[in-house]
Amino acid sequence: MLDGILTGLSTAASPLNILMVAVGCFAGTFIGMLPGLGPISAIALMIPITYGFDPATGLILMAGVYYGAIFGGSTSSILINAPGVAGTVATAFDGYPMAKKGHAGKALAIAAYSSFSGGTIAAVFLLIAAPSLAVVSLAFQSTDYFALMVLGLTAVAAFAGRGNVLKALLMTVFGLMLSTVGTDETQGIQRFTFGTIDLIDGISFLLLAMATFALSEALMSVLKPKTEEEKIREKDANANLGSMKLSREEVREMVPVIGRSSVLGFLVGVLPGAGATIASFLAYGMEQRIAGPEKGREFGKGSVRGLAAPETANNAACSGSFVPLLTLGIPGSGTTAIMLGALISYGIQPGPRLFVENPEVFWSVIISMYLGNVILLVLNLPLIPYIARVLALPHTVLVPMILFFSLIGVYFVSFNTFDIQLMVIFAAGALVLRLLDMPMAPMLLGFILGGMMEENLRRALIINNDSWAFLWTRPLTFAILVTAALVLFVPMLSPFVKRSLARRREAAGEGG
Amino acid sequence: MLTRDRIGALIMLAFSLGYGAMIFNIPLLPFQANQAFTARTLPQALSILGVLLSLALLLKPLRGTARDDDAAWRANMKRLLTRVPGLGFPLGKVAMLCVVMVFYGLAVRPLGFLLATTLFLVTSMLILGERRHVMALSVSVGVTVFFWVLMTQFLDVYIAPLPTFIGR
Known about the structure:
The complex is a heterodimer of chains A (512) and B (168).
Chain A lengths: L1 H11 L2 H19 L5 H12 L4 H26 L8 H49 L4 H17 L6 H15 L2 E2 L6 E2 L13 H19 L4 H12 L8 H23 L5 H15 L1 H5 L7 H17 L1 H7 L5 H12 L6 H6 L1 H29 L7 H20 L2 H19 L5 H23 L6 H4 L1 H19 L1 H12 L6
Antiparallel strand pairs in A: 1-2
Helix pairs in contact in A: 1-17, 2-3, 2-4, 2-17, 3-4, 3-8, 3-15, 3-18, 4-5, 4-13, 4-15, 4-17, 5-10, 5-13, 5-14, 5-17, 6-7, 6-20, 6-22, 7-20, 8-18, 8-19, 10-11, 10-13, 11-13, 15-20, 18-19
Chain B lengths: L3 H19 L18 H19 L5 H16 L9 H18 L5 H15 L5 H22 L14
Helix pairs in contact in B: 1-2, 4-5, 5-6
């Protein structure tokens, strides 16, 4: 393990990679701050740039963007009560009241310190958990992988909240259907290509991600015109942030909260399907209960604990979500799904072999998380007053820019103008589905896992002489499939769990 | 009643059925006919799943808070389809942006990157209601040129800058 850490350190600490972490954090903060644009869009927008880099650098940049986007999201939550990211909805509960009392600077500082601590503590867990899990997962066969992917897809749907499980499942199936477009990998048979050359390679995941997230999120923001009140809030936000210093008492109050929330956040992040959003709500609820009736009453009115808990947990969950991605090659959220897509297009197969074959990628990503958190703290915190001006940019200018960057990002990879037309079709379709409140993240996850799922299932059938019996005769496969079924059906059967989870998810929207 | 979820379910049902119908166009090699897993297997399973799930969503009874959610959604949709004086239909703007994007895709080759991109940015800013014309034009030209210089000079991606009729 020490070897690995050193390998990672030497890769991550190269000047180019440090620069990339910084660029990633900065760009992520910027994009995450824009209400409506989440980490998925932020990462999608960066992917075309990373194609020229080697995989380690690319992944480091994307990890930086992920952290930055979550941090940027909390900034807009605190300053204008408009979370840029679903994972920071809970941040606004106490962050915005605190800012309204004139302590915006303090709220931002608490958010930054909590994010830093949560991210760093969780990175230590990741450092321990990932290699050990990777060793175990070397024993996994294609049948187990197939089962794991089923688990990942059902878990995302199961965590979608009350009334949304069916919709999330439907969107997952939709994503899987889209993944079958193009040439069948093992047999070379064309499927659903309508006879055009442009679809022979299938739909590129970058195109789909850009169209259904960056493009359609930008178009959605046109449909939600700002109210006068919001405009005033945005102007106020830049006027005066107040002091960023914390008192000793406040620090003392924060420390145990950060400890608890980072453990909780990491564990929730590791679970497939539950991401930063659920982690932040759980941490908020847990701290409110622990704080007792007296302190608990301050929650929602600018409590230090109420701000520190979700901020710590969402960053810890981001680190946690890298565990299944790096060790099993199975993303647990829309955000890690898009990173998986990027890794595959670099020619790297994530999974247990990643640890063996590309140790520099594996370790440098983990090490870069420390760097990313340090940079967020030392670079972004002092710059926040300046970055916050982005909130005042008129959306008449901002939206065309986002449209342009999304279109050109895809066009510059393929140089095929058909892709631009296809993007518009997907964006319009995604917009209709978004207007109908259909969740988009499960669709992306289904699309990215679709190809791998079919491949593993086919291999499993070949190994087992065309018999489906492996689904119940191999204990590990069977156990994972049973877990998947339980994850899906237990919440349906127990209305109590369902009700409490749904209430928390209600305000959250789509998971990060 | 046609609720939000039911409209979504109908769309997905139609998609699943269409997808299912197109499976018959997937060619199979003769020796594959008896295999357990062919190029058609997964699509078949998916289209059946899609139909079942959308039927379930379609037939799900509407009760409790879901009813309120649906009413709120209805009101919001009504707002999107109502004309705002001086600004036009909110959905109309989005439709126009989509049209402009399609035209951008058609124009980027024949008109060259610089002209097509500047036009695209200016038009979409005007559609969104930007009144400061000089600002819109200068920002568009600035971004276009900056981006072109960045890509061609620093990232070594060749992009034809000029319209085809002028030469490149």
